Amino acid sequence: MSAKPYRDRRHQRSAQSSITSETVYDDPYWFGVRQFLDELGVSYDSYTFPLYAQALTHSSFTYEFKPKDWDNYERLEFLGDAVLKLVVSEYLFERFPHYREGDMTKIRAVIVSDAVLSKFALQLGIEQAMVLGPSEARSGGAHKVSNLACAFEAFLAALHLQGQTTFIVDMLCDLIADEVTKIDLSKTKSNFKAALQELTQAQGLGLPEYDTLREEGPPHNRTFIVQVLVDGEVIGEGNGKTKKEAQQQAAKLALKCLNVPVDDDEEDEAAMDIDIDGGVSDEPYDDRPF
Hints:
The chain is built from 13 helices and three strands, in the order H-H-H-H-H-H-H-H-H-H-H-H-E-E-E-H. The protein is mainly alpha-helical. The chain has two domains: 7-75 and 111-185, Ribonuclease III domain (Ribonuclease iii, N-terminal Endonuclease Domain, Chain A, Orthogonal Bundle), CATH 1.10.1520; 192-273, Double Stranded RNA Binding Domain, CATH 3.30.160.
């Protein structure tokens, strides 16, 4: 998707400018959203457009301009996360009829991670349509992993609220098919950290916390000992030649402690370096390989 001619002028908006669902349709600040929807083939009009525009409005915009009658994508992101997981879950359920719950959960945890969602967002061209505050735009906010992932989920929510179920399913299945194959073949489904995170969040226990207890051995042959805490309680301890390997082992033991079936012969692959820690990365997208 090509850059929009309005991008530079959009950031000269006055903080006193009125922004409402009635005025946003013809506002050049959201020209990129209209172009984005047109290229995807999403129909809209002056009544439905504001929801799509909100789905691509970053919190930096509402923070810097403080519009009285306009919101950012954060509430929509909450709904979009549920829509995403439902579609991905059904896809995995139908594609892998012989996989156990644990196998499908591990694949889904990687698919819905910020690292992967940001790739999907870039494939759609969301970075060209995102509406950012001037400061966030200057810092490369349109290419930050967390911003891309959040906008992607919010866009799914907007489609869902407009009754675009078939469009959502078709789009997501096209996006995730190859990624699911890579994850399955590379054994990234053995990402114990991802599985533990999904489990604790589903149970309302928050994100797991990993603490490095100590390092043993000479500098050229270090062993790291790491413990994982859930809701403030230590439930697993692991060791490895890298901190990430130790964290994976700690998460594996934690899953056993929480009565989640884990295969003892599953390998901990290097592909587990994917950032699945709750979507908090502020680094620009770097096309991390699987």
